[in-house]
Amino acid sequence: MENKTEIDDLKENGGVVISSKILSKHSSKKGRCHFTVLYNYQGNSFDRFMEVHDEDFRSKTEGDTVLVLFSPTCRSTIIKYDFYPSESDIKKCLNGCEFEYGKKGLSQIKSKKQEVKD
Predict the structure, then answer these.
(1) Is 47 helix (H, G, I), strand (E, B) or coil?
(2) Residue 4 DSSP label
(3) Burial readout 6-43 (b: 16 or more C-beta within 10 A, e: otherwise)
(4) CA proximity to 80, closest of 57, 63, 61, 100
(5) pLDDT (tens digit, 9 = 90+) per residue, 43-94?
(6) Which of 18, 29, 46, 70 holds its CA 20 to 30 A away from the CA of 79?
(7) Among residues 77, 11, 83, which one has the least CA distance to residue 52?
(8) How far apart are CA 89 and CA 103, in angstroms?
(9) Poorest-confidence range of 30-39, 71-80, 101-110?
(10) Helices (H) and strands (E) in the chain, counts
(11) In this structure, is the dihedral angle defined by the CA atoms of residues 57, 61, 67 and 72, taken in order, positive or negative?
(12) In degrees to the nearest 10, what's the CA dihedral of 58, 87, 71, 112?
């Protein structure tokens, strides 16, 4: 999906904000910068390639934790949510936080283990 379509998908269907590790950084001869990020969601690991701004590329290192936003309806949709998150946001969104376009704040998605404990 191209960027406009990705945003339209997230507006229509919402998404999931999740804590992710930067696995690697890549830059092209044309000056485009990319991260490969890894996240775990519903018991599965996913690594995704995403384009990033130059200033984020320069300031982040492999192994850093960032928050990304992905679409559960289109697995190729993944965009930056917060590349400078607080420790509490990292922990809160470890298993995913619900994202609703235009709504402030994130509500934690409870894992099946958490639901059993409650």
Answers:
(1) strand
(2) H
(3) beebbeeebbbbbbbbbeebeeeeeeebebbbebebee
(4) 57
(5) 999 999 999 999 999 999 999 999 999 988 777 788 899 999 999 999 999 9
(6) 29
(7) 83
(8) 17
(9) 101-110
(10) 4, 7
(11) positive
(12) 150
In angstroms, the CA 84 to CA 68 distance is 11
> What is the token pair recorded at 16?
């999931």
Amino acid at 80: K
Lowest mean pLDDT, pick from 26-40, 70-84, 95-109: 95-109
Q: Which residues are paired to 86 by β-bridges?
A: none
DSSP 8-state class, residue 103:
-
The reply to whether the predicted model has a pTM over 0.85 is no
Enumerate residues 6+ apart whose C-beta is below 8 A from 35: 22, 23, 24, 25, 26, 49, 50, 52, 57, 60, 66
